[in-house]
Amino acid sequence: MNPVETISHTIFVRHLNMKKLLILFLTLLTAAPAFSQSLAQRDPTLIAAFRKLKDARNDNERMSASDSLRMHLMAGLDDPAAFEHPFTGLDISRITSSDQRVRIINWNVPLDDGTFRYYAFVLIRDAGKTTFTWTELIDNPRETEKPDTKFMNADKWMGALYYEIIPVTGKKRKPTDTYVLLGWDGKDNLTTRKVIDAITIQGNGKVRLGASMFEMSTGTRKRIILEYSEEVSASVKYYPRKQCIVVDHLSPRNPMMEGVYSEYGPDGTYDLFQLEKGKWKLYENIDVSRFAESDDRPYSAPRRRR
C-alpha cells in the first residue's frame, strides 16, 4: 500500500470508528429514559410482575416473577417521589411510621413445601424529610438458633410480612432511631408465627434488627416470637392511645404437649406489652374489659340480642 493509500485508509477507519461511536451515543441517549423512569412510570411493569407471581404454578415461576418485581422496584427507588408513592393496584404491604420517617415495602412468596420467602425494602428519610436512603432486607431461610436473643443485620433478616411500625420514644419524647415492627410469618405447614421485632437506624442507610427492650419474667429479649398451630389464628395488636401491644396468650391443647408449637393456640386470656421508659414490659393475664371502653379492643364484640 502506497503512502497515499495508507493515509486514505487511516482516515476511513477513523471516520468509521467515529460513526460507530456516534451511533452508540445516540442509542444510549435514546435508551436513557428507560433507565430514568419514575416509579409512577414503572407501575404497569410492577403490577404485571406481581400478577405473574400470583398466577405462577411452581417455585421457579414464583421466584422468577418475584425477582423481576424486586429488580424493577429497586430501579424505581431512585425516584425522589418513591417515599410517597401509593403503589396503586399493587397488592403488596407498604407501611409508614407515624413520624413519617420510615417506610417499609414488603411482600412474600409462598413455596411448594409450605414455607415462604420474604422481601423487604426499608426507606429512611433524613432529618429534613427532603431526601431518603434505602436498604434491602435479605431473608435468611436458615433457622437461627434462639432467634429471640440475637441481633440481626439487613443481610441476615428473619423474614416476615409487616403490618405495623411503631416509633419508640423515651422519657422526653425525643425523636427516635428505633421502631417496633409487628409481623406475620407463615412458617411452614405445621405452625404460624407472629413476630414483635425492632429495627434501629444506624446511619448511612444501615439498620439493625432486634433490640434489648422486651422485658419478660424470664429475662430481656431482642424480639418476641409467638408460634402456634397453623389451624388457628392469634392476635397481636397495637393500641396507640395506651401505648401497648395486646397479644393472645398461647398454650398447648394438652399440657403434655408443652413445647410442641403445632399444638398451641389462644387459650382465651391475654397478655400485654406496655411501653415504659423506652422498654416494653410484659404483663400477663390482663383484664381486657378496660379496652372495651373505646374502639380499641382485642376481640370482636358479640351482637346484641333483640
The number of strands is: 16
Strand content: 25-35%
Main beta-sheet strand count, sense and barrel state = 6 strands, antiparallel
H/E series:
HHHEEEEEEEEEEEEEEEE
Structural class: alpha+beta
Q: Given the structure, what is the number of helices?
A: 3
Alpha carbon gap, first and last residue: 109 Å
* Low-confidence region ranges: 6-13, 19-35, 295-306
Structural summary, described in words:
There is one protein chain. The chain has 306 residues and is an alpha+beta fold. It contains 3 helices and 16 strands. Helices cover 22% and strands 35% of the residues. The strands form 3 sheets. Strands 5, 6, 7, 8, 9 and 12 form a 6-stranded antiparallel sheet that branches. A 6-stranded mixed sheet has the order 11-10-16-15-14-13, with no helix packed on it. It has a 4-stranded antiparallel sheet with strand order 1-2-3-4, covered by helices on one side. The longest helix has 33 residues, at 3-35. It is globular. Residues 6-13, 19-35 and 295-306 have low confidence and may be disordered.
